[in-house]
Amino acid sequence: MSASTNSKFSHLPLSTSGPIECAVSGTVLLNTPYFNRGSAHSAEERREFNLTGLLPASIQTLEQQAERAYQQYISRPDDLARNTFLTSLKEQNLVLYFKLIQDHLTEMFSVVYTPTEGDAIQNFSRLFRRPEGCFLNINDIDRVSHDLAQWGKPEDIDYIVVTDGEEILGIGDQGVGGILISVAKLALTTLCAGIHPNRTLPVVLDCGTDNEELLNDELYLGLRQKRERGEKYDKFVDEFVKSARRLFPRAYIHFEDFGLANARRILDHYRPEIPCFNDDVQGTGCVTLAAIMAGLHVTKQKLRDTKMVIFGAGTAGVGIADQVRDAIATEKGISKEEAAKQIWLIDKPGLLTTKTELDHGQQAYAKEASEWEGKEGSLLSVIKEIHPNVLIGTSTVPKAFTEEVIKEMAKGTERPVILPLSNPTRLHEAVPEDILKWTDGRALVATGSPFKPVKGPWGKDGSEVEIEVAECNNSVVFPGIGLGAVLSRASKVTDKMLVAAVHGVADLSPALKDDTAPLLPGVEDVRAVSARVAREVILAAVEDGVAQEKDIPTDKAEELDEWIKEQMWDPVYRPLKRVEPEGASRAAKAELKVVGSLEKVEDKAARE
């Protein structure tokens, strides 16, 4: 999106056309990442904003800056050092940071997110330089509203990501370091869906930690106490949610990496009341359902007839079950209870039955113990008994999908959909090469981590065929859902909105045109995918009566697409328009966030 003003929607508050108002100058401007563009400031801006003498004489383009930044990036010795470099760049120049990653998204995705972000989170207290995000303390519940209020006025925040740091990226309890998962998720919403980066808020709820390594680390920056649970924890979460809603009534709240005992419970409690989302539950479920639907399209099967086994009944496994169940119920016009009968969950005790000790989310899928009397509840036994056509792995049990298990799947259905989703790669239930070898190339496979294409003699005449393996990456779905919810100002996120998002992704599956192509679009196409997902989510929100934004152009798809894209932030340098501080917005005065540089804080103090 250029900085032109020729869009019919350029009057919208989130429009990306035209100049940006700026009420600061000199070193304050250069120390504000949203305004600073370093050597790319034009001669006019340098004079207008008192930057002469503060910058080298040469004026460069954003593309030249990005090339220089890329050379600096690749000179770093390892991915963690590259991650730290990108963090430093973000603190200097927001547009350049996003431009660099967007230009190299496929290459850098694993550095700004999993697995490298997991390393950064584990080393948070050792790599710490400057705070980013809002740190809320369970021992200061009475200050939650005050601390959140520092981040802006009601109209300033669109998207909040909050975590309590208990179950981070498969690496467990990381305490206050969890702030970085909130930061990373918000970076993805901007990269993948154009959420305005200066209108987002990363939050960590510091409740202590049960990670002994952190508790014994003298450099650890969080509360040095065991993780708080029970009534005090619930009161803390509730105070955060109520304060966030009161202070930022238009904001969408994204819960991230909460522990198994809390993730679904919190989502179920607040979902009927506010626009909120849990990526581990709903995002994982949506992207997996999109892969399943694309696979079923290839096999010419119907979702309504699906029998699915999920190996690993934690947050992700139950979240996937919920999305598939809800979609089956919608397609067949039956109750969720009836649809749940087509899904079997297996965990450490074996098949979940009415005799198993179950948590809240698992109970809907428990099979009658009397029907399984005398039968084994192992993965292989269940497959032999029910002949499923879809097998999901969310167990983190490496190599659990043995040759015998995979071949049994292939016996029961011509083209089984098999999705080993556990992260990281070493915890995968099976690798694509083995799954395809054991099924003579018939299986339709997507994984939780990236894998290279697999070659084998699976052509109709025995010729060699290369099959591309999709990565079930939540980033193809959660940013678009968030964008749709933000732009429509949805009062809540409904089942219909989530199913619409799934269809938006599944309809763009490369496998629909070529069954050797991936089941899901890749990250290189993610902005177009997010725009499509947002469109479907907005239409569903309007249909469900939860869209609060006025004048959404729903009559023509092309017009709605333009309306969406006009409000998607792009990393381009828009002209700066000088405005006087008196009467200027907080954004113009560089006051949207309190994490500005020391110079900015000192400058403000001097003026006061």
Automatic annotation (TrEMBL):
One of its GO terms (cellular component) is cytosol. PROSITE patterns: MALIC_ENZYMES. GO terms for biological process: malate metabolic process. It comes from the Eukaryota. Gene3D superfamilies: Malic enzyme, N-terminal domain (3.40.50.10380), NAD(P)-binding Rossmann-like Domain (3.40.50.720). Keywords: Metal-binding, NAD, Oxidoreductase. The keyword NAD applies. Residues 281-542 form the Malic enzyme NAD-binding domain. (S)-malate binds at N423, N473. InterPro entries: Aminoacid_DH-like_N_sf, Malic_enzyme_CS, Malic_N_dom, Malic_N_dom_sf, Malic_NAD-bd, Malic_OxRdtase, NAD(P)-bd_dom_sf. The active site is at Y113 (proton donor), K185 (proton acceptor). One of its GO terms (molecular function) is metal ion binding. It catalyses: oxaloacetate + H(+) = pyruvate + CO2; (S)-malate + NAD(+) = pyruvate + CO2 + NADH. The keyword NAD applies. Its cofactor is Mg(2+); Mn(2+). Belongs to the malic enzymes family. This is Malic enzyme. It comes from Daldinia eschscholtzii.
